[in-house]
Amino acid sequence: FTMNMYLFVYDLMQFCGHSWIFTNMIIRFMTFGKDSLADTFHSIGLVMRLCQLLSVLEILHILLGIDKSRLLPRFLQITERIIVLFVVINSQEEVQGKYVVCVLFFLWNLLDVVRYTYNMLARMGIYYLPLTWLNFSLCIPLYPLSVLAKGFAICVSLPYFESFGTYSIKLPFPFTFSIYFPYVLKMYLLVLFAGMCFIIQNLFSERMAHLGTGNIKNKRS
């Protein structure tokens, strides 16, 4: 009961954070139109970073056994967001005003509002079938779109990393070793899209496990 209550509070906090971001984005767009897109990161970036840092706890939940989700897919999804948000977007002010940041935040928060709503109800033993279907179906088309947006954000950031030398390291003599960070990002793009194939396969497996005919009948009853 204590662990279940803790997980419910965690899901509630994430739901409130992502709902605020999602609502804020919609209201700002309806009020200011396209002008609001370039200012997205400055308006909601702080709350977005707090929510993503908080999501690292989900890895700990799985390791401790209080969450039965699979570790590797969740680890990949969380680290993807952390790297793109903190390493790519947060470190380059020129990237923060790009429209792709708004698209990426919209996709992330749409998925998370649905996911944390489903999780909160599931903690109480409530399985609302349309919400269950939405939770395990919406991520299948939207997750690949978010990966494409992440890849585009990385590609947009490359010229700035090359110009400013951010995170690039050149060790002094007698060492001849250096790290050119744009090359690291290019290699990470390969990892990002390879991981996407694995995670999509896992999403289909989860959908089948929760929306199979037998499971649907059990939840209806």
Automatic annotation (TrEMBL):
GO CC annotations, alphabetized: endoplasmic reticulum membrane
Keyword Lipid biosynthesis: yes
Record field: catalytic activity: (3R)-hydroxyhexadecanoyl-CoA = (2E)-hexadecenoyl-CoA + H2O; a very-long-chain (3R)-3-hydroxyacyl-CoA = a very-long-chain (2E)-enoyl-CoA + H2O
Entry GO MF terms: very-long-chain (3R)-3-hydroxyacyl-CoA dehydratase activity
One annotated GO biological process: sphingolipid biosynthetic process
Membrane topology: Multi-pass membrane protein
Pathway: Lipid metabolism; fatty acid biosynthesis
Pfam name, any one: PTPLA
Enzyme Commission number(s) of this protein: 4.2.1.134
InterPro entries assigned: Tyr_Pase-like_PTPLA
Localisation per UniProt entry: Endoplasmic reticulum membrane; Membrane
Keywords: Endoplasmic reticulum, Fatty acid biosynthesis, Fatty acid metabolism, Lipid biosynthesis, Lipid metabolism, Lyase, Membrane, Transmembrane, Transmembrane helix
First and last residue of the signal peptide: none
Top EC class, one word: lyase
Segments traversing the membrane: 7-29, 41-64, 126-143, 180-200
Main location: endoplasmic reticulum
Similarity field: Belongs to the very long-chain fatty acids dehydratase HACD family.
Main function: Catalyzes the third of the four reactions of the long-chain fatty acids elongation cycle. This endoplasmic reticulum-bound enzymatic process, allows the addition of two carbons to the chain of long- and very long-chain fatty acids/VLCFAs per cycle. This enzyme catalyzes the dehydration of the 3-hydroxyacyl-CoA intermediate into trans-2,3-enoyl-CoA, within each cycle of fatty acid elongation. Thereby, it participates to the production of VLCFAs of different chain lengths that are involved in multiple biological processes as precursors of membrane lipids and lipid mediators.
Protein name listed in UniProt: Very-long-chain (3R)-3-hydroxyacyl-CoA dehydratase
Gene name in the database record: Hacd4
